[in-house]
Amino acid sequence: MVFVDLETTGATGTVDRITEIGIVEVNEEGEVREWSSLVNPQTPIPGFIQGLTGITDEMVAGAPTFAELAEEVLSRLHGRLFVAHNARFDYGFLKNEFKRLGLDFKASVLCTVKLSRQLYPQHSKHNLDALVERHGLHMPARHRALADAAVLWQFWQVLQRQIAPDQLQQAVSQLTGRSSWPVHLDPALLEALPEHHGVYLFYGDNDLPLYIGKANNLRQRVLSHFSADHRASKEMNLSQQVRRVEWIETEGEMGALLKEAQLIKQWQPIHNRRLRRSSELCTWRLVPMRKGDEEGLQPELAWARDLDWGQQDAVYGLFGSQRDAVKTLREIAESAQLCLVTLGLDKVPAGRPCFGYQVHACSGVCVGQESLAAHSARLQTVLSDWQVKTWPFDGPVMAREGDSWHVLDAWCYLGSAHNQADVQALLRQGRPAFDKDTYKILVSWLPKLGSVISVNDGEVYSVPLPASS
Q1: pLDDT of amino acid 466
Q2: Domain co-membership, 22 together with 133
């Protein structure tokens, strides 16, 4: 284990820099070794930070830079459980410092704030000062790196005295995501998993995907499956079956969502239910109808095979079955006092009022108390929230995310490209079948991008869509 604390020039790991590092190393035999160093941040330390930590610009002027300390720090941290208070802060700062040097630092992380909350839920405060007071810890110099790291080592010793070993081990396992790493998986994967956006695939004995998932942090998300398997039968079952893990890194969350939906439709994993292909999509469209001398509109069920999805105007709802479509329309109609008979959802003898009218749930178009035109107008109004959006661009477009381009056409995801040759190759493959989940992703995400580029002529389009699905 290594107990780590940092002092920094500020709170943002991507901008601010480290001014002091303190590390307390504890090996398997319980031997303890302490190490610390001031760090030249190569930038001025704000006055209020100097007042808080006592570390001044003069003190760090002759100190080594992080680049000069990197090898030493890495050797002390490598292969050990990284323990820190508000661990995301310290771990994030070190990852960013190593990243500036072209090094990819990874470690299993234990946050003592979370550990204290889990083991002492009766207390409301779990900051370092609260731990010192509650457990009688010795604090020689607050806001100095080695002193704060040493306090964490003292806290760990208190836990070993106060908490049963099995309970402490279970808490640590849950918080580090290492509780039940499947015996069939190579332990080296623990270090290889990237902390990046992407999609992961779990394979079983027949080398077909059992489960496909999306992650903003691949390492954290994959480990979470196995850290929870003792609490959920689904996770336990998956843990027992998985034999291999693969992953595909993406430039951002949108790319991960699109790739996940695409791969699940392609492979149909047994443990993916929400995004698996359902029966053929259907929707409602409004068609002309007559009632005596009156003209109006009536809903008609339309199937995916008969529509040019994305280009089709004025269709309402995306349903995986006729049953779902009828159920939803009936609920909409009843909430708006529309006539189920006029909508074609119920039947009564000619000239008789519908059942809804008899229980005051219909405004009376069936008995002439409301005009068919007014009824049709109300129908259009209540269906407007369900309208499937028409593709707002003239042909395929490219949406940029990071260093890649997502090629899109008529709400379909053709794939991601890094150059013009990749784009042309995707276009030659043709447009895939319209997919409800991809449509929802794009309707939600395209407005966040602000603009896209036409594949055909390079014109930049602004995205004229509200941020809703």
Answers
A1: 46
A2: yes
Q: Are 8 and 91 in contact (CB under 8 A)?
A: no
Paired tokens of 213: 């998932």
Given a cut of 50, whether residue 469 has pLDDT beyond it is: no
Helix axes 145-162, 165-176, angle to 10 degrees: 130
Cα 79–Cα 85–Cα 86 angle in degrees, nearest 5: 100
pTM for the predicted model, two decimal places: 0.64
Contact 63, 75 (CB under 8 A): no
Residue with tokens 């909430």: 335
Q: Tell whether 422 and 347 lie within a shared domain.
A: no
Q: Name residue 373's amino acid.
A: A
Last residue of a domain, one of 127, 146, 176: 176
Nearest to 197 by CA among 208, 213, 186: 213
3-state SS, 123-187, equals: CCCCCHHHHHHHHCCCCCCCCCHHHHHHHHHHHHHHHHHHCCHHHHHHHHHHHHCCCCCCCCCCC
**Does one domain contain both 165 and 198?**
no
Sheet architecture: strand order including 294-303: 294-303, 282-291, 315-319
C-alpha 68/C-alpha 66 separation (Å) is 5
* Secondary structure class of 429 (helix, strand, coil): helix
> Residues 226, 357: one domain?
no
Domain membership of residue 181 (yes or no) is: no
Query: By residue range, what is the domain housing residue 326?
Result: 282-386
Per DSSP, the three-state class of 109 is: strand
In this structure, are 33 and 116 located in the same domain?
A: yes
- Rounded Cα–Cα distance for residues 234 and 88 (Å): 29
Residue indicated by tokens 């395209």: 446
Q: What angle do CA 200, 204, 206 make, to 5 degrees?
A: 125
Report the candidate in 393, 390, 374, 403 with the shortest Cα–Cα distance to residue 451: 393
Q: How far apart are CA 67 and CA 64, in angstroms?
A: 8
32 neighbors 25 (Cβ within 8 angstroms): yes
Give the residue carrying structure tokens 């000619």: 350
235 has pLDDT over 80: no
Q: pLDDT tens, 20-36?
A: 999 999 988 889 999 99
